[in-house]
Every structure is written in C-alpha cells, then in structure tokens.
Amino acid sequence: MSADFLYGIEVVINGLMAGVLYALVALGFVLIYKASGIFNYAQGVMALFSALTLAGIMSGQVPFAHLINAIFGTDIHYFGWNVPVLAAIILTLIVMVIFAWCVQRFVFRHLVGQEPIILFMATIGLAYFLEGVGDLMWGSDIKTLNVGLPQGGSRFVEDATAGLGGDDFFGFFIDKLDMVATVVAIILVAGLIAFSQYTKQGRAMRAVADDHQAALSVGISLNFIWVLVWSLAGLVALVAGIMWGAKSGVQFSLSLIALKALPVLMLGGFTSIPGAIVGGLIIGVGEKLFEYLIGAPYLGGATENWFAYVLALLFLVFRPQGLFGERIIERV
Amino acid sequence: MNEAVMDKNAPYVTEDGRQIGGVMMDLRDITLRFGGVEAIKAISFDIREGEIRAIIGPNGAGKSSMLNVISGFYKPQEGEVYFRGQKRPPMKPYQVARQGVARTFQNIALFQGMSVLDNVMTGRMGHIKSNMLAQAIWAGKAQREENENREAVERIIDFLEIQAIRKTPVGRLPYGLKKRVELARALAAEPDLLLLDEPMAGMNVEEKEDMSRFILDVNDEFGTTIALIEHDMGVVMDLSDRVVVMDYGRKIGDGTPDEVRNNQEVIDAYLGVAHD
Amino acid sequence: MLYREAGDFKTTYVADNQTFPLKLDRIGFWVTMAVAWLVIPFVINDYWASSLLVPFLIYAIAAIGLNILTGYCGQVSLGTGGFMAVGAYACYKLMTSFPDVNIMIHIVLAGGITAMVGAAFGLPSLRIKGFYLAVATLAAQFFLVWLFNKVSWFYNYSASGQISAPERLVAGVAVTGPSTPAWAQYLICLFFVTVCAIIARNLTRGTLGRSWMAIRDMDIAAEIIGVNPLKAKLTAFAVSSFFVGIAGALFFAVYLGAVEVGEAFGIQKSFLVLFMIIIGGLGSIFGSFAGAAFLVLLPVALKWIGVDVMGWPTDLVAHFQLVIVGALIMFFLIKEPHGLAQLWRLAKEKLRLWPFPH
Asked: Any chain A CB within 8 A of the CB of B68?
C-alpha cells in the first residue's frame, strides 16, 4: 500500500476519534432537547465550567479567590491541599447537580411553554452567565488538567502498523488519550441507554420527552425530571470537559470546540442518540479528510473552522429533518 | 331545479333569489397520501360560482386535508384541480391565494404579534404592486397604495363590525372575535372563492348566529363563492346549497341538503352501523 | 396629564399611519434630532466620540439590521459578525480600488454587497427553520471570517493580514484615517443612523414589514393567505444585511481605522448585537437604539464603578460583565421579551394616566 493512502487512513482514524468527542458533547444536547425541548447552547460552556471546577478542586484553589481578595484586600489563592481525582470528580458532579437545580429553578421554570427559539436565546444568555461565574470562581488563566489519563501517541499501534507501508511509512500515529476517550464515550452511551431503558427515572424521562402533559397526568414530576436531565447533561459535560481539557488545557476555546456539536446535531437530528454518534463521526472524519485532501493543499488550511457548519448547512437544505429524523408533515 | 343541478353548466336561481353560475372549481379524482396513509381517496366534486358548498363528515374524514389541497398547501399524489375551466398547474399556496382563493383556519391562525388592523391588511398582499424602494421612501405610489388598501380594509372592518378593536393586538381578543378577524383577513383579499374551516367551532348559539349572518351576507353582497367545513348540522343544512359528505377519506354523499339527509350511507356514517 | 393622547384625532389614513401619532412624541423626536445634529457636534470630544457615541451609533445600525431579520421576520441569525466583516472588507476594497469616489458611496455600496451576500446565505432559510437556521448562520459566520483571513486579495496582500482605512474626505473634512476630528466621525455615523432608521421604519410599517411579521408569527398561514415566503425571507435577509454591512463598513473605516477580522468580527460580535436586540426589544426600532445604548454603556459604567471607584482589577470587572450580561438576557427573556422598548411604553402609559391612574 502506498504511504499516501495509509496516511489517508490515519487521518480517517484520527477523525473518528475526534468525532467521538464531538458526539460526546452532542449527547448532552440531545438529552436536554429530548426531555425539555430546550436547545442548550450552554452545553459547551458547561463542559468548560465543569473542567474548570474539577481542575480548581483538585489543586485546592479557593473559589472566588479573586473576588474575595478584591473586596477584603486579602491575598488568598489556595487552601494548600490537593484533592484526589475521584473525590474531586464527585465534588464536581455535586456542583453540576446544584447548577442543574439552579438552572431549572431560576430560569427555565419561568420559561415553560415559550417558543423554542426564545429558550435557545436564553441558553445563550446562560452560556455567558456560566462563563462569567466560572471565571469569577476559578480565574481565567489556562489550567492544565491531569486526571492520570495516558498522553501521547501509542507506540504499540505505531510499531504494529509500521510494516504496512514502504519505507516512507512509520505506522499510524494515534493518540492514547483519543483511544481512552473512545472507550469512555462508548461506556457512557451504553450507560445512558441502559438508564433510560431500564430504570424508573429513565422511563419517566422518556415519557416526558414524548408528551409533557401526558407525563404530568400520570404523576411524573416535570421539575424533577428536568433537574435530572440537566444533571445528566452536566455529567456528560464533565466527561467531555475532562477529555478536551486533558488534551488541550482548560481554557475558553474549549467552549468553542463544543460548538462543533451543533452541526453534529443538525446532521444527526436533535432527538436521536444514535444520530448524535453517527453525526459526530461523519463530522470528525469529514473535516479531517477535507483538510487533508483539499483544505491544506489548496485552500490555505484551517478549514476545520467552518467545514462542519457548511456541511451541515448543505445537508439540511436537502434533508431538513436530519439523517434519522422523521419526515415532517406540516399542518394548519 | 333538480334538472339544473344535473346539468353542470346551466346557471340557476335559488329559492331565496341568489344567482348560481357554472362550475368554478372542479376537483377530479383527488388522492392524497401521507406515507402509507390515504387521507383522501379518489374524491371528485365541484364548486359552482356563487354557491355555498359545505363539506361535512366525522372527525378524521379528510375534510381539512381537502381544503388544504384546494388552497395548494398539500399536493395530491393523483388527480387534478380545475379552476375556472383551466387545469391548475403545480402552484405554491401564495400563488393560489393570488388567484382569488382565501381561507380561514380550523385552529385560529392569526398573527399574534400584530394588531387587528395589520392582520387584516396582510390579506391585501395580492393587491400590492409598489416595490421595496418605493416603500422604503414611503412616498408616491407606495403611500397611495397603502391608503387604498386601508380604505378597502376599513370597508371590511365596518362590514364585520370590528371597528372598536381595530388597533388591539389580536392576542388579547376573545375567541369569537378572533374568528371574526380571521374572516376579515380572508375577505380583505376580495376572494372569488372563500374557504372556511369550521368557522363556528367552539362558539355559543349567539355567536353562531352572528357568524351565519356574516357568511350569508358575504355570499349575498360580494357574490363570493363559499366552501365551508362545519359540524353543526343545523347550520350546514340552513346555509348551504349543496353538501359533500366525506368519511374515512372517501366521498359518500353529494347533493342538496335534503338529498344528503336521506342518503342511507350518510346516515350510517353519522349514526353508526354494526360492522360484521 | 403631562403626556396624553386625548383630543389628538386623526382625519386621514396618512396621519393615522405616521411614525409618532402623538403630538408630544413628535415634539420629543424633533428635540432629540435637534440636539443630536445641532448641539452634540459642537461639544463632542475624543473620549465621548470613541468610547460612547460613535460605537453607539454604529451598533444601533447593526441592531436595526438584525432586528429586521430576527425581531420582525423571526429568523434568528448568529452571523452578524460575519456580515459586518463583509461590509468592512467590501468598503476597504472599494476605498483602495476607487480612491476618487466619495466614501459615502463606498459605504452604501458596501451595504449593497453585504445585502447580496446576506441574501445568498438566507437561501437555506426557505428549507430550514428556527434554531436549525440559527446554527446554519454560524456557517456564514465561521466561513466568512476564515475567508477574509485566508484569501489575501481581500486585505491587499498586506503582511500583517490587517486592513487599515486610508484617509478619505467628505466636503473637505477627513472622515476616515488617523486625523479625523471627533465631530466628523460622529456626524457621518449620525447621518447613516438617521437614514437607516427612517428606511427601517418605513419598511416595517408598510406591506413588506407586515409580510415579515406574518412569516414570523405563523409562516404556514402567511403563505396560504398570500405572502410569498421566498420574497419575504430573502428581502428580510437582504435589508438586514444591508444595514449590518453599513455598520461593518463604518465600524472599520470610521471607528477603528484598522481591523483584524477574527478579532473585530468574531462570533462574540454576533452575540453582542443579538443581545442588544433582546435587551432593547425584539421587533422595535426604538428598542434597537435602547439596546445598543445599554450594551455600549454597560462596560464603560462597570469599568468606572469597578476599576475607578472600587479599585478592583480589570479582569475581575470583565468577568462580572459576563455574569451581568448573561443574567440580563435571561431576565429580559423571562420577564419582558419586548425589552427596554416595552418598559418605555409602560412608563408612557403610566405617565399618560398620571396623576389619576383610575
């Protein structure tokens, strides 16, 4: 096999891995959208916020240190302890659940029955708010997040595949972190599907997704379900935040990377978990391949910035309901 | 009179002295499917110039779908629509509207963010000829046109007796008035064919009487042809010249109110019959 | 009693359709215009021009533009930054290619070019709706910024990748370039704001505006009663982009003088203008002004309170600003979806009845 072809395959594999991460963020969107009809633009910022919180807790940062120092003229920054990874993750999850409750209690409870586009704009406001709170709590400097995940390329894969090509080919370069992320994402998806299929809360969640009023009438608490769903989205955000954060540091751009989940959703449809996964993979592979074959050689590179959006846009023009959505019959 | 009905093209005069002309709209073998479901199965009927034509049938019979086909919103898989003797080519709904077909909706479809006046003014869409540039400057032709349309709309507003709520946002109106504003919006287009989808649903007796009077007046004064869907049999039998009866997407009866009333299949559909 | 409508009767439809039906409002409007045109140019200084008035006027144009698309026609766009960039780069290319033509014409042409680009990106709106469309407009945002970054023809192959506005005169006075006096900057922006606001008002109260609002409120019913959705949506995109393009051209040529596309016209700009119309009031020209004024003033006021009065570090104040803006957006969407414009209307209603509210 020629080296060019093999490098092409490497690009595809790396695209798949990136796609898994997109799919992971997209999952968070699907969860909230299905249960409440809210298209949660803040999902990316939630990932950023949870990663910030995790990094902050682990390194023993004092929350709101900046603010406290500014008001009281003190100079505190750290408690002086380090929290073990698992405990920090649990604490972060608790923070995300509290956040979920607050969002439900103070914002979306007051917006029930509003048009989807109003809800969407409210989540943009939420994104700003949360980003500000994250910065206030933990500062806006770039943080490294090391939860003990393996880093760097996998020597094993590289050595094992080096023999495939000629002298120009040195084996596939695949990031170990991406491999871990793939495994984690698969476990998470399996867990979520099991949760929604086999538990009482999961069934209630699906009932709410189907029909709010019918669910209410059989005694399901909408408030509880929505808090639950936002908490689950917080969990997904945390996982995505850990993966992205470990890869490229915890910083504002993390919330923009998460924006990639939007075209993923447009491809896969907003209500379909398999759609989110397939959409994520298509976008991941598509943008890497496009950059490799066309973007970098002919267009000056950095086409990953827009490829996903334009692809989704063109796709939607021809199939407005997405890959897996049902055909929409409009009525009057 | 019966003979005249048999001969499609012969005009005749009804008992109350209204002129009924030739066939205005002819629907031939219309079949409409959604996925695997046949909502309308090979239905044919016609609507004559100047008449009040009712479409009745139980819920889910396909009546609203039929109106949607006439107004061009649904595209039937089979069959043709003839309008004024011409076969209608595939058309967008707004083009059908501009041919002179206006309608109201089963669930009120007013523009919630606009005042009554603005809602009714949207009905004049087909009568606008000035371009965007003229409208941007708000002078000359654009303003003249605006005033002409306003005058036309004010006539309708007077006719339907909704002067007092002219500038009220429609969201604040009670149900019965909303229905009337919707009728005003349809009339503002000065249509030749007016489609009314359950114009009296959810109204009390008094409101129904008002609405019936308006429908008759529209037909009488403007000579507008009317096709309406209605569940209240008393109203249907009183108002309409001819009635189409639908059930499960099929046509099971067509004729004058008296003919339909005595049609065995119609009686079965309405009163229910043992299926064995 | 100070503010009343009783006795203010209309005898013609023309009078009934005017922008300010109440005499008192008309007086208020002309006083405002007189102050804006005849007083401020003589007292303005560099600080007021560059930190408040000029950005306010330019953002007001952009907000009017977005409000036409989002507030009147119901099509949410997150591509405002990208369309402003089109206006800026079109203006730059025109300025440098045809140096002898008056800059005012260039700015209008830049708006026209943006209108065409906007209409092209508006085409998908015929098939996709709601937030699908909102996300689709992100494609415009990211693609346009990338385009102006990568294709060096757009920035005349300058080494820095920036574009900077050469000096251009209107009636012998510089309006672009480093030696522009503050009052000239202000006046050219004021001119465009005035014209844009009048055009926007005329379009929105007439037939076109009604067809936009019909599409916004119920697109299917609108089409069935005779509104051509293609025409309504595309004109909304085009008119909106025209204004946004003019705002972009002014933002670059008159206000900043030199821009780097990702920094000046990134996605944050799209959100900023969207926030302006949410806070100011969706579907209101006055609201566009109010929202622009509010969000231009807010950082200045916060900086003054936080940094100058309280002595806090700048980044802390910036974080607070995010929290406050985010909270305000949610607050307005929950409590007052019609924004500051509605609050103003309510205040007027109170005034009308004062001092006998019953």
From this structure: yes
